[in-house]
Structure formats: structure tokens, C-alpha cells
Amino acid sequence: MRKSLGVWGGVAIAASSTAATTSVGIGLGLMAAIVGLHLPAIMLLAFLPILGIAGGYGRLVRDNPNAGSSYSWVGRTLSPWLGFLTGWVNVVGTVVFMAYTTTVTGSAIIQLLGQASVHSVAGLRLDPNSTVQSTCLGLAVLIGAALVAVRGVHHAAALQKWLLIFEYAVLIAFCGYGLIVGDQPFSLDWFNPFAIPSLSALAQGMVLAVFCYWGFESIFSVSEEVEDPRDASRGGFIALTVMLLLFLFCGTAFQRVLPLDELADNGAQGLAYFGEKLADQPLAALPLIALMFSAAASLQASVIPTARGMYAMGRDGVLGRVWTRVHPRYETPAAGTLLITAFAVALALLSLVIPTVNDVIYAAVNSIGILVAFYYALTAIAAAVRFRHLLRTSPQEALRAVVGPVLGAVTLLAVGAYLAWTFYDSADHFELSADNGWFALLIPVLMLGSGLLVAAWARWGRRAPYFSRGYGTSPCTAD
């Protein structure tokens, strides 16, 4: 594949995949319902283990740039089975995220049309809470984003830079104004993690907050297309730092403007409601436009690394060769990009059985969050094992490549395990509902179970070299 990305292109990919505007617009309301008026505290607390894990990612990509990223690194260092599961849950989790983000995108479009006084089309009344309407509109955006991604990661990065500039300008302007004119009394207690209501709220809030940071590692999946592997590391850290500052800034502003009940009740329409509290039309529509751009950009930024992950798996022989087909002109894994998009479209259509936008988002975020903690932790452990010799030879470098990743991994594993137990203990029967703990647990169980089945087929059916050698293949020879 063509090396066409620099550090700022990498920042655009990572930041768009993380989708801060979407997380602010939707995630803050969901988290407020759990942790109360402690949004800045939970975002800061979740950043610490992510920062430690990012140090491991950065050292791994410098040592071995690989489209498979976590899948290859964990497979080489710990176990091919764990490596495959890491890659599998990452891919499947991202496809689920893409499927559900189509609903968010469509809902934002319908909200924007409503603010423009367009309430019906061809006799059909538009409803932003209609999963069917929102999903259908979002699917059109998803397909368009995939077609742009086929043309090359540099084209996608160039588009996303301009979208990010608009999004961040709107967020900073509205939240800055909200900090000044908001009538809710400011309190330093908002930044105190010890004031979070309960251990269960802390664990669930942490997983939701980690989910908001999810995506920074996208730049590491395109490391074979980055001109300098160190640019991938720089891009990831810059994107993470910007995310933290935005989350703290916006979380504080939201709590200055909105009482807790209004913040929690508006959920998926939180950013639009926030804008309407601060400005009249047409200015009030700007946050909603930013949300729509963010959701659309995150769809594109998600399909890019996911296709690269499947490309690496196909290259290793654990999946079919179709995933390795590179476009003759654009030099991108075009077949994989379109296949991933097709899977997301199919899943989005299946998600229509869940009746409301909030239920779709809540079920996906809770379930995928456990798996994000799982594969982040495994990647961090792989970094610590791989670079453990630095504890003797370079203690300062070991803080970033060994100690930080280990502390981050332990934290995320503990939080993920506690949340899984909370889900299990919260119900005594299964029900197809986002509020049912057993339903929330079923999604990660199915993802892991399907990964084991595919891995078994790759090991004994395909006889993939990835398993027989015990190492993930790589286009590099750094190790």
C-alpha cells in the first residue's frame, strides 16, 4: 500500500475515529445518568489508563509497523489465539459501532431538517427517534464514506481535517459561551472522582468514558501507509490530548448550562438541546451540523482501520485472500473496505428490532466497552512483555513501554470484569432490552465465541501459518 500519510493526516484519522463531537453530543448525557455531575472527573480518570496503554502502542508501532496492529503484536508476543481474538473483537466491535453510528448520523440529519422546518417528506412525518428512518438515512452516508475511503487514506484524511476544524470551532465557541452565561453554579466537586455515587457507577462510567476515547489507535492500523512510523505515534498522542481537553471543557460547559435531569434526559439529542439553550436559529443548528459531520467522519475513519485489520488477517492466511485484494489504481484494500461496509449495513438493518435510538446506542456502548477494555489490555500486556528488557537497560523508557501499559491494562481489566459482573447480577432473566444485564453480556460473549470458532477453522481448517509458527506475519523485519 502507498505511504501517503504524515503526522497531521494521522491526527485527522485518529481524531475522526474517536469522534469527540459525537461523544460529547451523545455520550455526556448517557454518562450523566450514571455518574451525575462528575463528567469531567470520569473523563479525566478514564484518560489515565488510556494514556498508559497509548505508550505501549507507540513503542510497538515504532518497533513493528503493521496493518494488523494489536492482532499482530499480541499474536507475536503472547499467543496467536489471543492475537486473533484481539483482532477479531476489534473488527467485529468496530462493525457494530459503524452499524449503530449510522443511526446517530441519520438522527442528526432528521433533527437538522426539523430545525429547518422540514418535518415531513412525501407525506412521511420525520422523527429523529425513529430507528428505521435514522438508519436508512445513515446507511446512505456510510456507503458514501466507504467509497471515498476506497480512493485512499490520504483523501479521507484531507476531508476529515476540514470537518474537524468546523466541529471543534463550533464546540469551542458554544461551550466557551456556555461557561460564561450558564446559570448552574460551578463546583470543583465535578472534578472529584471520589464523589461519584457508587463503585458500580464508577465502573460503568469508566467503561463509557473509555469508549469515548476508543479509536485513537486507528492511526496504528494505517502505519504501513504512514511515511514515518514515529508519525503514527505522534498522531495518536496528539489526538488523545486534544480529546481530553475537549471532554473536560465541554463536560464542564454542559454542567454549567444544563441541570442534571435535563442533561440525562436528552441523551442522543443532548448537543442539539444544548445549542438551543444558548442560541436562536439558525445559530442553534450549528452544533447539530457538527454532530452530523462528526458521525459521518467517524464512519469513514472506522472502515479504514477495520479494512486494514482484515487485510493483515488475510495476509496471514487466517482469512480468505479476498481481504488482501488491493485496488490497482488507489493501492487500498478496496475489496475489504466494501465487504466491511456490507457487513455494517446488514447489521444496521438487523438493529431495527431495537425500537429507539437511545436503546441502540446504550446497548452498543455498554457491550462494546467491555471488549474495548479487553483488547486494549491485551495489547498493553504484549508491549510490557515485549519490552521488559527496558526495565534493566533504560528505566525511563520502561515507564512508557512497560510500567504505564501494565497499570493501564490492570485498570481496564478490573473495570471491565466488575462491569460484566454487575450486568450479570442485575437481572434474573433474559430480555431483548438495552436495560437487561444478560442481554448486555450476550453481545461480547457472542463476539468472543464467534472469534474462537473462526480461529479454530483458521488453525485446523486453513492451517494458517500464523498459528503453526506461533507468530503473526509482518511486512517488516524489525524484530
Summed up:
The chain is mainly alpha-helical. 73% of the residues lie in helices and 1% in strands.
Detail the topology: elements first, then pairings.
Blueprint: H1 7-18, H2 20-35, H3 39-63, H4 70-77, H5 80-115, E1 120-121, E2 124-125, H6 131-150, H7 153-181, H8 199-213, H9 218-221, H10 229-257, H11 260-266, H12 270-278, H13 286-315, H14 334-350, H15 357-386, H16 390-393, H17 395-425, H18 437-461, H19 465-468
Antiparallel strand pairs: 1-2
Helix pairs in contact: 1-7, 1-10, 1-13, 2-8, 2-11, 2-13, 3-8, 3-10, 3-15, 3-17, 4-5, 4-15, 5-6, 5-13, 5-14, 5-15, 5-18, 6-13, 6-14, 7-10, 7-13, 8-15, 8-17, 12-13, 13-14, 15-17, 15-18, 17-18
Describe the structure.
- This protein is mostly helical and 479 residues long.
- The protein has one domain: Amino acid/polyamine transporter I, CATH 1.20.1740.
- The protein has 19 helices and two strands.
- Strands 1-2 form a two-stranded antiparallel sheet.
- A hairpin with a 2-residue loop joins strand 1 (120-121) and strand 2.
- Helix 2 (20-35) runs antiparallel to helix 8.
- The radius of gyration is 21 Å and the shape is globular.
- InterPro entries: AA/rel_permease1, APC_superfamily.
- The chain crosses the membrane at residues 30-57, 78-100, 132-150, 162-182, 194-216, 237-258, 283-304, 334-354, 360-387, 399-424, 436-458.
- It is found in: Cell membrane.
- It is a multi-pass membrane protein.
